[in-house]
Amino acid sequence: MSIRWNRTFSDLIRRSRPAYWGNWALNAQIRPGAVGIVDAETGDFRLVREQLPNVELLHTATSSSWQLMSERVSRTEASVDVSAEATDPDSGIKGEAGLEVSWSMANSNSIASEFSLRQESFLRDLTVVERSVDWLAEQAQSVGFGGNGQIAQGFGVVTNVIFANSGLNVGSQSSDASFSIAGRASAVQEMLGGASGKGSFSSIRKARDVDRHLWPDQANTRPVEPVPIAYSFASFDGRLLMPNWIGKLGGFQIFFNNRPGSTYITRILLTYNTPSGPRREQFEISGGLSRTIGNIPLDATDLNLDVTFVGMINSDRYRRHWARPLGQWLTGQRHIEMSGVWPGATHFSVLEE
To answer: Where in the chain is the domain with CATH 2.60.40.1430?
Structure first.
């Protein structure tokens, strides 16, 4: 079974950037405003139209480095002699101290990703996507992702892109895989985290059982333009805009857990609005029990949760409000943890927040 590198890469990115997809193979077609399809299973992007009409972009410069590694991936640096192979791309002069950077991966399907970041580029106004729903529906229908003015989830628009000057993605195809690059010390350091945009390498010293994508992709050259490494994506459910789409959703779910050992009964009141009218659910959960509310529609708004720990004299109350879960609940779920032993303190938390 082949490894779904972009899916694995995206999952790693979402530990710190929950709304993003990765661009493992450094697909240059991923640009803000690009219209296409994201496969929820593999994470791969397929371009349908180069640009959404009437798009205006903003760009924010960033000079920070990007470094992501899976568990049991080790990174080392060592001085090496590259006098015979390293050439300055500008002057053509050989020399300078050499540096070799190596990654060792104990497990298969592990990832090392390092880049020198350049900028973030994004749509000036996300409402342009919603205003273009008719045009987008036509494009979706042409590739089998819609019909009758409706758009299927997975078809949409790239809204934000992180660009890098240079760097690399490396993944282990088996246990004990390894990879290393070498070059002039300053050029390799710039390639993996500098801000000048002048990073390069002179050679690949070791490549055992790895899938790799480098920028620049040739030795002793400098990248001509920045490369996209991660992006956010807006899709639709019918004609309902899903501004940060990271996977297919059929509806929202809330999981309530009144933890074992809790002696409080919790009284739950959930209300929200839908285009067809307001909804309301109310129930109680004893200690050690749980309950799930599912099938909350994707177009629900102004969702209010009121949790009361019922006491003999006084009761503790906790409240949460979500104006538009579709833009806030990326996975479509919230897990509510509750506990307390009377007459002591009560505890309430939303695990995703």
So the answer is: 252-350
What is the helix (H) or strand (E) element at residue 133, kind and residue range? helix 133-142
62: pLDDT confidence band, cut at 50, 70 and 90? confident
Element (H, E) at 142: helix 133-142
Number of helices and strands in the chain (H, E): 5, 24
pTM listed for this prediction: 0.91
10 Å Cβ neighbour count for 246? Answer: 22
Kindly tell me the sign of the dihedral angle through the C-alpha atoms of 137, 138, 144, 150: positive
pLDDT, mean of residues 168-172: 97
Nearest to 64 by CA among 117, 16, 122: 117
Q: For CA atoms 147, 153, 159, 165, give the dihedral sign.
A: negative
* Predicted pLDDT at 86: 61
DSSP 185-212: HHHHHHHTT-SSS----SEEEEEESEEE
Q: Which CATH architecture has domain 252-350?
A: Sandwich (2.60)
Read out DSSP for 238-306? Answer: BTEEESS--S--SSEEEEEEE-TT---EEEEEEEEEETTEEEEEEEEE-TT-EEEEEEE-TT-EEEEEE
